[in-house]
Automatic annotation (TrEMBL), chain A:
InterPro entries: CheY-like_superfamily, OmpR/PhoB-type_DNA-bd, Sig_transdc_resp-reg_C-effctor, Sig_transdc_resp-reg_receiver, WalR-like, WH-like_DNA-bd_sf. This is Response regulator transcription factor. Residues 127-225 bind DNA. The modification 4-aspartylphosphate is found at residue 52. Residues 127-225 form the OmpR/PhoB-type domain. Keywords: DNA-binding, Phosphoprotein, Transcription, Transcription regulation, Two-component regulatory system. Signal peptide: none annotated. It comes from the Bacteria. Gene3D superfamilies: 3.40.50.2300, 6.10.250.690, Winged helix-like DNA-binding domain superfamily/Winged helix DNA-binding domain. Residues 3-116 form the Response regulatory domain. It holds the Pfam family Response_reg. SMART domains: REC, Trans_reg_C. SUPFAM superfamilies: C-terminal effector domain of the bipartite response regulators, CheY-like. It comes from Phytohabitans maris.
UniProtKB/TrEMBL annotation, chain B:
It catalyses: ATP + protein L-histidine = ADP + protein N-phospho-L-histidine. Residues 181-233 form the HAMP domain. The lineage of its organism: Bacteria, Bacillati, Actinomycetota, Actinomycetes, Micromonosporales. InterPro entries: HAMP_dom (IPR003660), HATPase_C_sf (IPR036890), HATPase_dom (IPR003594), His_kinase_dom (IPR005467), HisK_dim/P_dom (IPR003661), HisK_dim/P_sf (IPR036097), Sig_transdc_His_kin-like_C (IPR004358), TCS_sensor_his_kinase (IPR050428). Residues 241-448 form the Histidine kinase domain. One of its GO terms (molecular function) is kinase activity. The keyword Acetylation does not apply. This is histidine kinase. The chain crosses the membrane at residues 157-179. Its EC number is 2.7.13.3. CDD domains: HAMP, HATPase, HisKA. Residues 1-26 form the signal peptide. PANTHER family: SENSOR HISTIDINE KINASE TRCS, SENSOR HISTIDINE KINASE YKOH.
Length: 225, 449
């Protein structure tokens, strides 16, 4: 049974989402504050975390950062804010996906499944190692290394990197990446952009002038030596 | 007629001032100079005539005077002609013959009365002054002194003065033009700041120190911008609050009804019907709120990027259970549009065709020389000509839908289409489809206007 941690300060939303997700087959633990949520996650880690942005005390962004600092648990933001700034800030803090309220329980469940699926998919990809100059990707082991030094990436980042690595030198559009990594028929392309940005911070010597993970203007991204 | 601009008016005023000043100065100097030159010239003519008259008088004193010989001895140069009137006969040097007509009768009368006379005349060879000197024994000595040289000098002077006046006038106009530019230059910074603010940069302010004379303008301008940005910020925060306050309860409603829906089989018929009503209404309310919040968003221009609109159109059709081959593409299938907005344009037009037009029958993606064109056809009753503008207003529903009591739509779909088309600098129109039904046409210009 999949464990979901739901950090949401609105009691009614927390309760209704808990009921809805339980109907979809998840085990849900809910907390009203980020502090409680972080404590709960330390005590017994859930498979996925759902987090609201406007929380009393420690806010959602900080909560995401602290969760991300610990491990690569998939984090989905469920927030009433649909401002570009808020969405990008949450993704930059380390969230894997962003949903704007009201979100249907079925949709939420589909997002969670997609996140879990790609996490598994990457761990069974039967390729030994993909090498791009000083960048090395081992899909089987779920490892990334730059000049032999292992780099910690989240599962979503890893899945994104693998998609690009499986088509070396070929441009993949944002829409293609959204579909392959997040399983969105169409969605918010900022998801891709922010994740690419986060990956560059980790694997590029100069994230502002990337050598491996390059943008092809008007088309998308590609991975090169 | 349009009133001429400030710069033109100031330049014209400067030109008029400069012209009045320089023209009167020129006229005055011409008057004084010509008078002085003329007087001097007359004095010298008189003096020479006197001297010559003395010589002639002495010559005539002899027994049988050789008058032409006497006249020839006179040193007259090339500008003076000497004539002698004696005993009713005119004497002149051979070269000067035929000049007697030039002597004015009035002057002759004066000389014959024994008085000295001088008069300006016009001769065939230009202006001249005629001096008449009475001599004893009823003779009159006349000298025609040509003033052509002086006349030429004066016309040169007049020309020079005219040129000076003209160039002073032009310089005045130029100075006025330059001056207004200098004076208006601080206003350029005001214009630039206003433009930045219009473009959305509310941090633009003017520095009152740069132009102390315009301090009142800059201060009130800055106050206006402060007020404006405060108001905008308040509106933005209000919109964000409204968004949050509406979305949160909707989240609960949505999740709770989905639970009810799932457990419908355990409910009796009446309760199950109520649950169906509830979940339909919640879904509609959700769409309404989402559309309203979308409309309430501030008018930001579309963020254009290449989008595979052909693929997008097929996806939107399939998502509504329509065959993907409804989509016909003419020309490039990738357009520079705002993906989010264009997706809503497509979706709302397809939904509209479904609700009011019996379903879309064709989706065409075409191009004109300066625009991308999306057309969505249906085979419904069409839109009456008098309704063709109003249907793009908010909360306007099709007549057929109202008659059916169908309240599935939000009444905002086409308003959103119009909003998104406008954000691209384009527009949406509706016409009759040949063969019946309506044809919605969205035109998006290739480049931002």
């Amino acid at each position: 049974m999949e464990q979901v941690l739901l950090i949401e300060d609105d009691d009614r939303i927390r309760l209704s989402l808990t009921l809805g997700l339980e109907d979809e087959g998840y085990t849900v633990r809910g907390t009203a504050t980020a502090e409680e949520g972080l404590r709960e996650q330390r005590r017994s880690p859930a498979d996925t975390v759902l987090v609201d942005l406007m929380l009393p005390g420690v806010d959602g962004y900080e909560c995401i950062r602290q969760l991300r600092a610990r491990d690569d648990v998939p984090i989905v933001v469920v927030s009433a804010r649909d401002d570009t700034h808020d969405i990008v800030a949450a993704l930059e803090a380390g969230a894997d996906d962003y949903l704007v309220k009201p979100v249907a329980v079925k949709e939420l469940s589909a997002r969670l499944r997609a996140l879990r699926r790609r996490a598994r998919a990457s761990s069974v990809a039967a390729v030994t190692a993909l090498v791009f100059g000083d960048l090395e990707i081992r899909p089987e082991a779920g490892e990334v290394a730059v000049r032999g030094e292992p780099v910690a990436v989240t599962r979503t980042e890893f899945r994104l990197l693998c998609e690009l690595a499986e088509h070396p030198g070929r441009v993949l559009s944002r829409a293609q990446l959204l579909e392959r990594v997040w399983e969105y028929a169409y969605g918010d392309e900022r998801l891709v952009d922010v994740h690419i940005g986060r990956l560059r911070q980790k694997i590029e010597d100069d994230p502002a002038a990337p050598r491996h993970l390059v943008t092809v203007r008007g088309m998308g991204y590609k991975l090169q030596r | 007629m349009r009133r001429p601009g400030l710069r033109t008016r100031v330049a014209a005023a400067f030109a008029a001032g400069a012209f009045a000043l320089s023209a009167s100065m020129a006229a005055l100097s011409y008057g004084f100079t010509s008078q002085a030159l003329m007087a001097g010239r007359e004095r010298s003519a008189l003096r020479s005539a006197y001297l010559d008259a003395g010589v002639v008088h002495a010559g005539l004193a002899t027994e049988r005077p050789d008058i032409p010989g006497i006249l020839r001895t006179l040193n007259t140069g090339s500008t003076r002609r000497a004539l002698l009137h004696r005993d009713g006969r005119w004497y002149a040097r051979a070269a000067d013959a035929g000049l007697t007509d030039a002597i004015p009768p009035g002057l002759r009368g004066l000389v014959e009365q024994g008085r000295l006379g001088m008069q300006r005349v016009d001769t065939d060879s230009g202006p001249a002054v005629v001096v008449g000197v009475p001599l004893p024994s009823s003779s009159g000595f006349y000298v025609i002194d040509s003033m052509r040289e002086l006349d030429q000098t004066l016309s040169t002077l007049a020309l020079v003065l005219t040129l000076v006046a003209a160039s002073t006038t032009a310089a005045g106009a130029g100075f006025g033009w330059y001056l207004t530019r200098r004076v208006l230059r601080p206003l350029d910074t005001v214009t630039a700041a206003a433009r930045e603010i219009t473009a959305g940069d509310l941090s633009a302010r003017l520095d009152p120190a740069t132009e102390p004379d315009l301090e009142r303008l800059t201060t009130s301008f800055n106050e206006m911008v402060d007020q404006l940005s405060t108001r905008l910020e308040r509106d933005r925060r209000f919109a964000a609050d409204v968004s949050h306050e509406l979305r949160s309860p909707l989240q609960t409603l949505s999740a709770a009804t989905s639970v009810l829906d799932r457990h419908r089989t355990r409910l009796d018929d009446r309760a199950a019907t109520a649950v169906t009503l509830l979940s339909d209404e919640v879904a509609r309310f959700q769409r309404l709120v989402t559309d309203l919040l979308e409309l309430a968003r501030d008018d930001q221009p579309a963020q254009r990027a290449p989008v595979d609109v052909a693929e997008l159109a097929r996806e939107e059709c399939q998502a509504r259970g329509l065959p993907a081959d409804l989509v016909r593409v003419d020309g490039a299938g990738t357009w520079p549009v705002d993906r989010r907005r264009f997706t809503q344009i497509l979706g709302n037009l397809l939904d509209n065709a479904d609700r009011h037009g019996g379903g879309a029958t064709a989706v065409r993606l075409g191009q004109t020389p300066d625009a991308f064109v999306l057309e969505v056809d249906d085979e419904g009753p069409g839109v009456r000509p008098e309704d063709r503008t109003a249907i793009f207003d908010r909360f306007v529903r099709g007549r057929a839908a109202s008659a059916r009591g169908d309240s599935d739509g939000t009444g905002l779909g086409l308003a959103l289409v119009a909003r998104h088309a406008n954000a691209h600098g384009g527009r949406v129109t509706v016409a009759d489809r040949p063969g019946g039904g309506a044809r919605f046409r969205v035109e998006v210009p290739r480049t931002e206007p």
